[in-house]
Structure formats: structure tokens, C-alpha cells
Amino acid sequence: MPELPEVETTRRILEPYLLGQRIQKLRHQDPTRYRRTEWAEGRRVLATSRRGKYLLLQLDHNLEVVVHLGMTGGFRFEPHRHTRLTLTLPNQTLYYTDPRRFGRWWVVEAGDYREIGLLERMGPEPLSSDFTLASFEQALRCTKRKIKEVLLAQEAVAGVGNIYADESLWLSQIHPERPANTLLPSEIKRLYRAVREVLQQAVEAGGSTLSDASYRQPSGEPGYFQFHHQAYDRAGQPCKRKGCKGSIEKKVVGGRGTHFCPRCQRL
User: Fold this and answer.
1) Which of 76, 91, 121 marks a domain boundary?
2) Residue 226 domain flag
3) How much is the pLDDT for 211?
4) DSSP code for 145
């Protein structure tokens, strides 16, 4: 599933094509997944932003387009066999593709996220000043859930999914099944720094394109952070931590395949 780095990469690439442009047409055949898109037609794009894993387009007349890419959603500059929606601008057509059809679009009055519950309760953006060590520590102290589950829930910090949770926990040497409220202050500090470091590096690398190639940048180019993965998708391979002789294992935590080194991420 596209996570913060993939959505942010997509936003940055699309922004020059969208800003100041008037949406001429939004075409699709699935009003259940793509809701009230007719509201956006004829409206000008004033700004683009991102909240967690959601792409947001601010329109005039106090409207907003909210896009969740689901598991396989993305944009292309050329038609694609899995195109589900086309966004026509004066000088450009963008093609929204989604092989597995889990992505969703909403057009809403700006800030009205009542039908998108996660947006209303989402935690701070990890690469912003709102994400502080104090707020992160407070969020972890309040729950006995496994730390991997807490990271995936989006309430302690926004935008972290399966890939970057595994990478952050590996970097901070924390076992994914540790109850969050058992982490020591020093461990929380390591994890806080790891989340920021991993996400920043992943954004700079254009996100991660895995073996299924479900995520690609709008140009069709892959992301490149997968070449820097230390844990995710490396089951059975040696741990890359200097001095560690362990191997990466995979198990299910919180319903998600989870990669970690049991030797240097001790439970």
C-alpha cells in the first residue's frame, strides 16, 4: 500500500500540473468509490497537500478533493490498462490507475471529513514540527498494544504503514511485539528519530517499489528506497546491522507480515 513517502512523491510530481488549473472533467464508472466528483468540475486547483496517506487538492468555492490510493492506486501521464478515472485539465490529462480497486476519491466541503473517519482522528505529521518527542511518548504511554500495531493505527503518528514501521523498528532496535507502554524513554527517543529519518530518506528516494511493481511514480519510474531496506521483505537474509549475526525473520503482527531481526530487536 502506498504510504507517506509514495503519496508525498506523487503529490510533488503532480503539483506543477495541477496548481492554478481548472478541472474540466472527472470521468469514471464507479460513483460508489469516487463520490461527488461532479462537484469538482469547473473548479480551480488552489493548492495540493497530503495528510498521512491521503492526497488532498484544495479547490475554489471551498471544496476539496480527497484521494486515498488504497493498495495499488497511482497516477500516470499516459493511458493505462488499469485506468479507473481520468482527470482532464486544460493542457493535461491525468490517469488514475488502480488494479485492485481499493482506492477511493471524495469531493467534500473543505475540511468536512465526517465520512472519512481516519482523517478526523489522525495523529501528527512525522516530518512536521507538530510531531514532537513529548507527544509521541504520551501516545505510547497510553496503550498496551504492540508497538507495530500502534504505528500502523495512524493516531500516534500519521502516514506510517507496514514498510516504514518495520524499517523504523529495525533502525531503533525495538521488537515489533513490544507493548508500547513498556518502552523506555531512551527507546522512544530512538524510535521517534528513526521514524523521521526513515521517512525522510524514503521521500528523497521516491518511495519503495516492491516486486509486484504496484507503486510507480506518475512518469512510470519506480521508487528507489527498496534498495535501502534493512528489514522489510528480507526474510531469511542476514541482518545488516554491524556486528549482528542474526537473520531477518517474518511473522504476522497485527494482521500484517512483519520483518525484524530477533537477535538485535529482542522481545
Assistant:
1) 121
2) yes
3) 86
4) S
Kindly report, residue by residue over 194-211, the tens digit of the pLDDT: 999 999 999 999 999 998
Helix axes 4-18, 185-204, angle to 10 degrees: 40
CA nearest 173: which of 157, 153, 193, 159? Answer: 193
Q: Are strands 63-68 and 54-59 parallel, antiparallel or unpaired?
A: antiparallel
- Tens of pLDDT, residue by residue over 148-169, are 999 999 999 999 999 999 999 9
List, as one string, the DSSP characters of 90-101: SS-EEEEE-TT-
- Residues 7-31: what's their mean pLDDT? 98
Catalytic positions, written as ranges: 2-3, 53, 256
Range of the domain at 112: 4-121
Average pLDDT score over residue span 120-127: 96
Shared-domain flag, residues 11 and 105: yes
Q: How many residues does the chain have?
A: 267
CB within 8 Å of 181: residues ≥ 6 apart: 140, 141, 142, 143, 144
Sign of the CA dihedral with 198 first, then 199, 201, and 207 last: positive
Is residue 53 located within the same domain as residue 10? yes
Cell 466541503 sits on residue: 109
3-class DSSP assignment, residue 109: strand
Cell numbers for 175, please give them.
Answer: 521488537
What is the tens place of the pLDDT at every residue in 68-122?
999 999 999 999 999 999 999 999 999 999 999 999 999 999 999 999 989 989 9
Torsion of CA 58, 61, 65, 66, to 10 degrees: 80
Global pTM value:
0.96
As a whole number of angstroms, the distance between CA 192 and CA 201 comes to 15
SS3 category, 170:
helix
Answer whether 149's CB lies under 8 Å from 187's CB.
no
Half-sphere exposure for 123 (CA within 13 Å, toward CB): 22
